[in-house]
Every structure is written in structure tokens, then in C-alpha cells.
Amino acid sequence: MRVLAIDHGDKKIGLALSDPLQFTAQPLGCYEVRGKKADKAHYLSLVADYDISEIVVGLPLHMDGTRGERALKVEAFADWLRSFLGLPVFLWDERLTTREAYDILRLQNIKQREAKKYKDQIAAGIILSEYLESKRLNKERAPS
């Protein structure tokens, strides 16, 4: 069972997917928002095609930890996913992931114009990596 990560945007949505053992995160590309009906079909297809058991959505909090308009939109999106997927959908603090994605792309000598094409899926990969690491740490700390 895999975990899907989503870096939500108004027009483009970055996606990343874990391996079946939930150790690694790989970018899965970007999805262009098309409308509720097409979007619903897309997510249902992803869940079926990749055997997804849970979803983590990046929550864009302000630097002081408060929620703004963008975070409220993401929370509504997560609720929408829950309403028809029947899977756990978790929110994950995504502060600075886009900046981190640009840093990674810059280290790979990818120019700024080209980096814009990849930043959302790289950010989703960062969100997923952090989420998977947190799950592992919590599992290790759990009493036996």
C-alpha cells in the first residue's frame, strides 16, 4: 500500500508517491486542475492504479503557524478528497517546501525557468519524505 502526497495549487497540483513499503518518495508529476468531475476521476484513478492507502496534503501555514486563506482552501480540498475516496487524508505542515524544492533543483543545475515545471512535484516529494519519516519515528517510539 502506498502513500500519495499532494502539493495543492489553484491550477497545478504536485504529486509524489511512496514505494509499497513506504520508505521512499518519488515525484509523480503535476496535475492540471480541470474541474471537479475530471479531478474526482483523476484521484479515483490514482488510488486504484497505485494501490494508495492514505494521502497527505501539504498545508501552507504562515511562518507563525497560523492559517490563512490558502490553508483554508487546502483544508476544503482535503475534505473534498475524503468525501469520495474513503481513505485517510492527512494535512502536513509544508512551510518552506517550495523554497527547498527550488534549492534542490538549483543544486542539480536546473535553470529557474525549467525549475518552475518541477517545483510542485519536488515539493510534494519533500512533504511525503517528511511524513514517512515521521511515521517511522512514531512507530519506533510506540510501546511494544
Describe the structure.
This protein has 144 residues and is of the alpha/beta class. The protein has a single domain, classed as Nucleotidyltransferase, domain 5 (2-Layer Sandwich). The protein is built from four helices and five strands, in the order βββαβαβαα. The protein has helices at residues 36-50, 69-85, 97-107, 112-141, and strands at residues 2-7, 12-18, 25-32, 52-59, 89-93. It has a five-stranded mixed sheet with strand order 3-2-1-4-5, with helices on both faces. It starts with a strand and ends with a helix. 28% of the residues are buried.
Chart the SSEs and their pairings.
Elements: E1 2-7, E2 12-18, E3 25-32, H1 36-50, E4 52-59, H2 69-85, E5 89-93, H3 97-107, H4 112-141
Parallel strand pairs: 1-4, 4-5
Antiparallel strand pairs: 1-2, 2-3
For the largest beta-sheet, the strand count, sense and barrel status come to:
5 strands, mixed
CATH class: Alpha Beta
Radius of gyration from the alpha-carbon trace, in angstroms: 15 Å
In CATH terms, the superfamily is YqgF/RNase H-like domain
Uncertain regions spanning at least 5 consecutive residues:
none
Outline type:
globular
In spatial order, strands of the major sheet run 3-2-1-4-5
The rounded distance between the terminal residues' Cα atoms is 23 Å
Give helix % range.
40-55%
From the helix content, strand content and strand pairing, which structural class follows?
alpha/beta
The total of helices stands at 4
* Tally of individual domains: 1
